[in-house]
Design a protein that fits this description.
Beta-Lactamase; 4 domains; 491 residues; ATP-binding; EC 2.7.13.3; alpha+beta; elongated; 5-stranded antiparallel sheet
Length: 491
């Protein structure tokens, strides 16, 4: 998510990596908001001696303080002195506990400077609603202490860590999914009820507190050869990475956030989440995709077998007309097989039709012109087409190119052209215009008699492709065939 405009970059005094560091913060600060039960706002200095709100996050563990979004607005006058003090002191500055500057809310506000390489880059304001305050539980106290630890690391440039994975893999653990606090020796100081439940499903003991999380986790691993190498470093709190462990049919996603100060690492936070159902569904999807690919592969093999049988039967035919009919049927089957071969090589519901037709175009011409010298010209681009359009369009092009060679050029040398153009029509719909040309004898005078091939073309264009087709004489010698069809985008 981009939080800086070009105008703000011009006024910012950033060194190498500073902007990326702030982007990392905004990408991961939901963690702090949930631990602090607070709204977080990122303030950045702008000309005029004031600050602008660049980003805002609300907690998922508590209600929000600000119901309206004020990103892009200038800072309030009553909040500015607090932010100024944090910017200049490079330390956390707190307001009075009974501050009501946000309206009717009684709030505690903290201004936390984002300091990196000794320079203040921005200020984070933390807004905690004190309305309805009660005696906090051990979980709330632990959460808030961890939030304080992370914010203190921000003032020293120690968090966020560039080694933290930025991928958005489904199932990344959150605070509410399961939370564990470790000391410097990876001994569990606190484990939330959800974390204990998740570990029990893996086969761990009913309690985790007072035990080494590293030892408790590694004891659940049945086969060390199949274990992620990052697992020991994550559960010992040494590295800010993510990993997974699987045991007894349960898959647990783990994430570690080491806690550091100027003296070194003094503890860690470990988030965990049961992602068994998510991974099971992902495996099902992979299995279904593999099955679909295998079906396309087998259909292609079966069609190639049919084409080979037709070829064998054609060689035994004594009738020239019968041999030609079988050869045409063989060519049509081979065209359909080529589409299924393309579909068997990927997971997409669309087909790179340019790659498919480039292989076929020259082959169609060579088969249709054994005693001629016919050149081909390919222009334009079909682009990605839905799979359901690929087969009928391939057959249509096959028939029209064959017709151009056999009837347009009539045993003479010449050129067959194929052009494709994607455009928007007057209604804003994406359409494809396919043009097939030859420099042969042109259209016959009088009414045309259509054979089986052209009947197949008309049927496919009107019914399968929902398009229009038209034949016309070129300005020079030869014929031009125009096909226009809608291309429905896959949703």
């Amino acid at each position: 998510m981009a939080i800086f405009t070009d105008q703000l970059r011009e006024t910012a005094d950033f060194g190498p990596g500073d902007e990326d560091w702030l982007h990392l913060l905004v990408g991961d600060w939901q963690l702090v908001a949930d631990l602090a039960f607070a709204d977080l706002v990122l303030w950045f200095p702008v000309p005029g001696g004031t600050y602008m709100a660049l980003a805002h996050v609300r907690p998922s563990t508590s209600h929000t303080v600000f119901h309206t979004d004020f990103v892009g607005e200038r800072i309030r006058k009553d909040l500015k002195p607090l932010v100024d003090a944090a910017w200049q002191s490079q330390d956390i500055v707190r307001s009075d506990a009974g501050d009501t500057s946000a309206g009717e809310h009684s709030m505690l506000i903290e201004a936390v400077p984002m300091v990196r390489n000794g320079r203040t880059l921005a200020v984070l304001s933390v807004h905690v609603d004190l309305a309805g305050t009660r005696m906090p539980s051990q979980m709330e106290l632990t959460y808030k202490q961890c939030a304080e630890d992370l914010l203190r690391m921000c003032t020293r440039g120690l968090w966020p860590d560039f080694a933290t994975p930025t991928g958005s893999r489904r199932g990344a653990p959150r605070v509410g999914d399961g939370f564990i606090r470790l000391d410097a020796k990876a001994v569990v100081q606190y484990a939330s009820p959800n974390a204990v439940s998740a570990y029990r499903r893996l086969g761990a003991a009913p309690t985790l507190e007072g035990k080494s999380l590293s030892e408790a986790t590694m004891a659940l691993v049945k086969d060390r050869r199949m274990t992620d190498e990052a697992l020991p470093l994550v559960v010992s709190g040494k590295m800010p990475w993510r990993t997974e462990i699987e045991s007894m049919g349960v898959t647990l996603s783990l994430r570690s956030i080491p806690l550091r100060n100027s003296k070194g690492r003094y503890g860690a936070l470990v988030l965990c989440r049961d992602v068994s159902e998510l991974r099971r569904r992902e495996k099902e999807l992979v299995s279904k995709d593999a099955t679909i690919r295998e079906i396309h592969h087998r259909v292609k093999n079966n069609l190639q077998t049919v084409a080979a049988l037709l070829r064998m039967q054609s060689r035994r035919m004594k009738s020239e007309e019968g041999r030609q009919g079988l050869d045409q049927a063989m060519r049509r089957v081979a065209t359909i097989a080529a589409v299924h071969e393309t579909l068997s090589q990927g997971l997409s519901e669309s087909v790179d039709f340019d790659e498919l037709i480039d292989r076929q175009f020259r082959m169609i011409v060579e088969i249709a012109s054994p005693g001629q010298h016919v050149t081909t010209e390919r222009t334009g681009s079909f682009g990605q087409l839905p799979a359901e359009l690929a087969t009928p369009l391939s057959l249509v092009i096959n028939e029209l190119v064959t017709n151009a060679v056999e009837h347009g050029l009539v045993d003479r040398d010449g050129t067959v052209g194929l052009d494709a153009e994607r455009r928007r029509n007057a209604g804003g719909e994406d359409i494809l215009i396919v043009t097939i040309t030859d420099d042969g004898v042109g259209l016959p005078a009088g009414p045309r008699q259509e054979g089986l091939g052209l009947q197949i073309v008309r049927t496919l264009v009107s019914s399968e492709l929902s398009g229009n087709i038209d034949w016309e004489d070129r300005t020079g010698p030869g014929t031009r065939v125009l096909i226009e069809l809608p291309v429905l985008a896959k949703r």
